[in-house]
Specification:
Blueprint lengths: L1 H4 L6 E2 L1 H6 L10 E2 L10 E4 L1 E2 L1 H9 L3 E4 L1
Parallel strand pairs: 1-3, 2-4, 3-5
């Protein structure tokens, strides 16, 4: 949610986006955790999701895509 508020991302969060924002390196495996609050509708692509993260993304109208 913080990245959306700072206008660093708009509607899609994928592996390349995380690398360009220096939140991951090309050799990392990314797991999305269900902490915090998500208000934005996002399409999120990652290697793994916790059940709470997937539920939060879908509850906000977004999509969780497993790589």
């Amino acid at each position: 949610q913080q990245l959306v508020d700072e206008k660093k991302i708009k509607d899609t969060v994928d592996f390349d986006t995380l690398i360009s924002l220096r939140l991951a390196t090309k050799n990392d495996l990314v797991k999305i955790l269900g902490r915090g609050e998500l208000k934005a509708k996002l399409k999120v692509s990652a290697h793994k999701f916790t059940a709470t993260a997937k539920a939060a993304i879908e509850a906000a109208g977004g999509e969780a895509v497993t790589l």
